[in-house]
Amino acid sequence: MAQMLIGGELVGTRSGATIKVRNPASWEVVGEVPRGAGADVDAAVTAAAKALPGWAATPGTKRARLMHEAARRMHEAVDEVAKLLAQEHGKPLAHAKLEAGRVAENLEYFAGLADKLRGDYIPLDDPAKFGITMRRPVGVVAAITPWNFPLTLFANKLCPALAAGCTVVLKPASTTPLATQRAIEAISGAGFPAGVINTVHGSGSEIGDLLVSHPRVNKVAFTGQTETGKRIMALAAKNVTRVTLELGGSDPMIVADDADIRRASAAAAIGRFFNAGQACLAVKRIFVFEKVAEEFMTKLAERAQKEWKLGDQFAADTKMGPLHTEHQRAEVESQVADAVKRGARVLAGGERPKGDGLDRGWYYPATVLADVPYDSRVATEEVFGPAVPVFIVKDLDEAIAKANATVYGLGSSIFTKDMAKARRAAEQLEAGYTWVNDIQVAYDQLPFGGTKQSGFGKEHGVEALEGYLEKKSVVLASG
Ligand code: NAP
To answer: Which tens digits make up the pLDDT trace of 394-410?
Structure first.
């Protein structure tokens, strides 16, 4: 059974209670973790608080060395971690390997920044005095992550936190804790002092509130649903704990009449069907200009039918595994059914697959919908599965207005050869990211984060470090 890492020790819970982890393709149990309780949260936060002064005072060069060593160990553990991830999540093994490798890359990126933190010298009016600013770690970080990209999303929090000198208590999603726990054990084997990195497992509804409102937690870094984020923000207010919230999205893609349709349809398919559509940054609503609408929809439907083969996550030709839970599939099915009831046409997918061993898991095919009313659920809600509505628009004004008609503001994209259109979209789309003629892929070097109800705060880029640092002013007067 996997355990929790608390104060440098691998431990279970006192009660002995556990959570079973299942393979969504077969519903078989693939592992177990302790079902943490309040005492475990308290122990992990206390361990992190105890380790904080020492880690904050550790020279940046030493923090960087440990992080590089952690990256090396993570590279070595990729195959083992990826297998656990594919089993517990349902994603194809090749994609799980990519994700595990990204943890090592993220460690390397932030290791490169750990010894480059510095402040400013600020002259004051009084010549006998001057000011400086110092960068101090914010303290103990509670990192709470979802199940869709368990590894990249914990790395997005752990790596900048470690580089900044913070200590961390990580709570992974209770349906995908195994790969995260194994990755953390590989990372912590690099020799971080006890208590710098801790994990607690357990149900968010049972221990989440305790973790977020613990008086010794100084920052909550959360990724998950907007509704959970709102609750966390309210709870964090109790101790004025700072929060970073990476929440839901409903990213628009605009396809103008001068777009390269082959490229746009490929980007739409990858952007929507990768990870079986269970991605925050994903093409969730498409607005295509009338002149190219037929061609684009035909091409996208073709790709959905031919290129996104469903299957067991360990089969070499599988492009899409099952959805992660029964609830997740039921939700997508009911969103599609709502659109169809209101008159939408199904251009591809739309029905559970049968045979080939697909009846057992929570499989759902790549689905493309046309003639979708704007008030239907696929247009107004986040669709966290492989279904996408395509809307026809007359021009860029209409596309941008419709794209912005959502509470979300995470990613967005436009396909056009006209730089004026691209620039206007980049300026006017209400989102944290705009891709022009490109697939929605986040880069380590570029700050990533939402606007509106997609949250606030940045992950990736040097900007991510800011979320884990305080700027303190000091006045020095000549004695
Ligand atoms: P979720 O239900 O909000 O859960 C996320 C994490 O929060 C899990 O670890 C969960 O634990 C925990 N949690 C649940 N209730 C809690 C509480 N009261 N206090 C503290 N923690 C609590 O989200 P999800 O369904 O796993 O993830 C899918 C969502 O994440 C989608 O909306 C997606 O768009 C969003 N997402 C956003 C980004 C981004 O960067 N913006 C990236 C990826 C995903 P349990 O697992 O034990 O319930």
So the answer is: 999 999 999 999 999 99
Query: Is 246 among the residues known to form the active site?
Result: yes
- Domains of the chain are 4-247+454-477 (3.40.605.10), 251-443 (3.40.309.10)
Phi-psi region of 124 (alpha: psi -120 to 50; beta: other; left: phi over 0): beta
Residue 228 Cα to ligand 1 middle (Å): 7
359 pLDDT exceeds 90? no
Which atom, in ligand 1's list, is nearest to the CA of 172? 9
Has residue 418 got a pLDDT over 80? yes
Verify whether residue 294 is a known catalytic residue.
no
- What b-and-e string marks burial along 121-142, b requiring 16 or more CB atoms within 10 Å of the CB? eeeeeeeeeeeeeebbbbbbbb
31-55 residue pLDDT tens: 999 999 999 999 999 999 999 999 9
Q: Is the dihedral of CA 309, 312, 317, 321 positive or negative?
A: positive
In this structure, the residue with its CA closest to atom 1 of ligand 1 is 224
Query: Is any ligand 1 atom within 6 A of the Cβ of residue 223?
Result: yes
0.85 surpassed by pTM: yes
Q: Check pLDDT > 90 for residue 1.
A: no
Which residue CA neighbors atom 28 of ligand 1 most closely? 224
Q: How many residues does the chain have?
A: 479
- Starting at the edge strand found earlier in the chain, the sheet holding 469-477 runs 121-123, 129-137, 469-477
Residue 418 phi/psi, 5-degree rounding, is: -95, 110
pLDDT at 297: 98
